């Protein structure tokens, strides 16, 4: 009976299922309001289904007992990211509604600061919540990179792919999964990526200026990752350090998460 209760996901079903339903509703609104085509709708629908499956499985494994208000804020951000993803996919076939795309992305970035505050004030900060928050941030950055890479060049994708490359490297080099200390510089650099990509995607800057801004953001991100990798390398052989399989907080892609910072 205890095992069945541990893996019973019914407490989360209303939240995760409602989230998928709202995502599909948002996609339908985008189709009718801004003329988003089939490619965008199918991409957004796939995003909704995959999100529902992954989140349900994660909740089943972690069993936090309740979805929580902070996770609901993050779920709302996920829905906005789904809309951005659909519009970016559709932009390869037709001129995208830039104002709508930028507005959705901007609100998603602003809400990134809200879910963490909600988690701390309600005492509902969890490792799952931090991971959920971080994965949403990472995917939004990657999607924005895809959008901005069209006018500026494929090199922009390095911003969105850097975190995933770090995760892949950590599968081979376990010391990369070690604990990192809190860093305001890391948090600032991570937050800057989304801001710069939204501004560049909005088309309000000349192309040369947008490219320069994104290049600076990429350079800062490379410095941030390089500094963290150097720190992990130096402490890898210390007792309790990265080389001993430390599993404490790790640096996020955008923001410090909800009391638990994770890069992977």
Automatic annotation (TrEMBL):
<feature type="region of interest" description="Disordered">
    <location>
        <begin position="240"/>
        <end position="264"/>
    </location>
</feature>
<dbReference type="InterPro" id="IPR043130">
    <property type="entry name" value="CDP-OH_PTrfase_TM_dom"/>
</dbReference>
<comment type="similarity">
    <text>Belongs to the CDP-alcohol phosphatidyltransferase class-I family.</text>
</comment>
<dbReference type="GO" id="GO:0016020">
    <property type="term" value="C:membrane"/>
</dbReference>
<feature type="transmembrane region" description="Helical">
    <location>
        <begin position="134"/>
        <end position="150"/>
    </location>
</feature>
<feature type="transmembrane region" description="Helical">
    <location>
        <begin position="95"/>
        <end position="114"/>
    </location>
</feature>
<dbReference type="Pfam" id="PF01066">
    <property type="entry name" value="CDP-OH_P_transf"/>
</dbReference>
<feature type="transmembrane region" description="Helical">
    <location>
        <begin position="41"/>
        <end position="59"/>
    </location>
</feature>
<keyword id="KW-1133">Transmembrane helix</keyword>
<feature type="transmembrane region" description="Helical">
    <location>
        <begin position="210"/>
        <end position="226"/>
    </location>
</feature>
<keyword id="KW-0812">Transmembrane</keyword>
<dbReference type="GO" id="GO:0008654">
    <property type="term" value="P:phospholipid biosynthetic process"/>
</dbReference>
<protein>
    <submittedName>
        <fullName>CDP-alcohol phosphatidyltransferase</fullName>
    </submittedName>
</protein>
<dbReference type="GO" id="GO:0016780">
    <property type="term" value="F:phosphotransferase activity, for other substituted phosphate groups"/>
</dbReference>
<keyword id="KW-0808">Transferase</keyword>
<keyword id="KW-0472">Membrane</keyword>
<dbReference type="InterPro" id="IPR000462">
    <property type="entry name" value="CDP-OH_P_trans"/>
</dbReference>
<dbReference type="InterPro" id="IPR048254">
    <property type="entry name" value="CDP_ALCOHOL_P_TRANSF_CS"/>
</dbReference>
């Amino acid at each position: 009976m205890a095992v069945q209760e541990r893996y019973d996901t019914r407490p989360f079903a209303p939240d995760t299922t409602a989230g998928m339903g709202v995502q599909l509703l948002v996609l339908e609104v985008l189709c009718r309001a801004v003329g988003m085509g089939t490619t965008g709708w199918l991409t957004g629908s796939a995003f909704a289904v995959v999100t529902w499956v992954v989140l349900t499985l994660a909740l089943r494994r972690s069993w936090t007992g309740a979805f929580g208000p902070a996770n609901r804020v993050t779920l709302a951000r996920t829905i906005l990211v789904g809309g951005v993803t659909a519009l970016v996919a559709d932009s390869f076939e037709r001129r995208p509604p830039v104002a709508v795309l930028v507005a959705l992305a901007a609100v998603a970035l602003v809400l990134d600061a809200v879910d963490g505050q909600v988690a701390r004030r309600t005492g509902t900060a969890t490792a799952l919540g931090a991971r959920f928050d971080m994965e949403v941030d990472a995917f939004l950055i990657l999607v924005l990179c895809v959008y901005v890479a069209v006018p500026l060049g494929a090199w922009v994708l390095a911003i969105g792919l850097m975190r995933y490359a770090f995760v892949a490297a950590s599968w081979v080099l376990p010391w990369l999964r070690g604990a990192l200390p809190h860093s305001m510089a890391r948090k600032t650099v991570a937050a800057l990526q989304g801001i710069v990509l939204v501004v560049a995607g909005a088309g309000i800057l000349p192309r040369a200026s947008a490219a320069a801004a994104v290049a600076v953001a990429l350079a800062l991100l490379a410095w941030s990752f390089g500094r963290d990798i150097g720190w992990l390398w130096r402490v890898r052989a210390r007792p309790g350090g990265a080389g001993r399989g430390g599993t404490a907080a790790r640096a996020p892609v955008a923001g410090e998460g909800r009391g638990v910072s994770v890069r992977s």
